[in-house]
Recover the amino acids of this structure.
């Protein structure tokens, strides 16, 4: 599908929401939540012998659209001014290690007022529905489930069909593969989906698939993820198998797995987690094995401190072992 069709769809649904929603038409601020979100992150990368920082300041909005019959959908918008300081390697959204940019994170509309047998329709820039990330929001946090490294991107512009049914929930999307750009680049695309048990239960099981071409690399993935919570303890896991084709080396088999053990305090202010990660490729001489340990502490509704440390425990065939320490202060008002 053409990029203009997605942009037209986003504008069209926005107009429909505004004029069908009586409360929105009369008073847009009703059912609107917004917050100013600022963070400062310090990174110490031993493998690159580099210390860097990332500063972000933006607005996070959530709007529920309603009419006389009830809710018809909702919209999410997140825009951040982000500044790098000596950051290596340079993220794809930036042109230099000290660059600054306005970044769109989530920006989408989800129409939910259709008949029970029809799916909800989401249009915009959203997180790809795959694995643990589908139910656990990590935007702006140190906690990560490595969407970008596994699939080529975490967020993309496109269209998705989603629904929560009596026993299962599903989300299937077709996106353009341009990542931050609402267009297809050199034939890029991504077809992604996940079906699983209800995410509010103590035991959650999901199956995911991915078929796409991003940054001129074709990827195919099948994955299973699970979550089990017992009191304040949780154990999570994800296993993804597939193959990549970067057009130079041909198709290479890829395996990614993650197991996480976490503990949340009774008042939910403190969360501790530890992750064991394995990444293997047939064209790599060794399998990467990493341990990630971190915590977050919520002082109040506005202030959060988080820290994490990643260390590679195997000896890579070339280069230094990965070793990264990060600390972040985040304020939401």
């Amino acid at each position: 599908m053409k990029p203009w069709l997605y942009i037209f769809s986003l504008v069209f649904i926005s107009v429909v929401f505004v004029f069908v929603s009586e409360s929105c038409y009369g008073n847009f601020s009703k059912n609107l939540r917004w917050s100013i979100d600022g963070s400062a992150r310090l990174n110490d990368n031993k493998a690159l012998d580099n210390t860097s920082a990332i500063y972000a300041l933006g607005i996070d909005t959530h709007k529920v659209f309603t009419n006389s019959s009830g809710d018809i959908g909702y919209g999410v918008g997140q825009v951040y001014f982000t500044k790098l300081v000596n950051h290596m390697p340079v993220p794809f959204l930036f042109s230099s290690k000290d660059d600054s940019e306005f970044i769109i994170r989530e920006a989408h509309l989800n129409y939910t007022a259709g008949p029970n047998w029809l799916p909800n329709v989401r249009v915009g820039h959203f997180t790809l529905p795959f694995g643990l990330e589908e139910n656990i929001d990590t935007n702006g946090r140190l906690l990560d489930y490595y969407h970008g490294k596994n699939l080529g991107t975490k967020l993309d512009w496109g269209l998705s069909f989603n629904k929560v049914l009596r026993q299962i929930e599903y989300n299937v999307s077709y996106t353009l593969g341009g990542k931050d750009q609402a267009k297809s680049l050199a034939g890029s695309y991504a077809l992604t989906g996940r079906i699983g048990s209800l995410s509010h239960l103590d035991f959650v099981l999901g199956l995911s698939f991915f078929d796409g071409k991003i940054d001129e690399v074709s990827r195919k993935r099948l994955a299973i993820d699970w979550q089990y919570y017992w009191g304040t303890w949780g154990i999570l896991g994800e296993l993804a198998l597939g193959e990549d084709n970067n057009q130079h080396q041909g198709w290479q088999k890829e395996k990614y797995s993650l197991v996480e053990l976490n503990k949340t305090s009774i008042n939910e202010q403190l969360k501790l987690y530890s992750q064991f990660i394995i990444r293997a490729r047939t064209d790599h001489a060794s399998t990467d094995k990493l341990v990630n340990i971190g915590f977050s502490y919520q002082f109040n509704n506005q202030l959060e401190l988080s820290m994490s440390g990643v260390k590679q425990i195997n000896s890579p065939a070339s280069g230094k072992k990965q070793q990264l320490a990060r600390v972040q202060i985040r304020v939401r008002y």
Q: What stands out?
A: Residues 1-6, 19-26 have pLDDT under 50 and may be disordered.
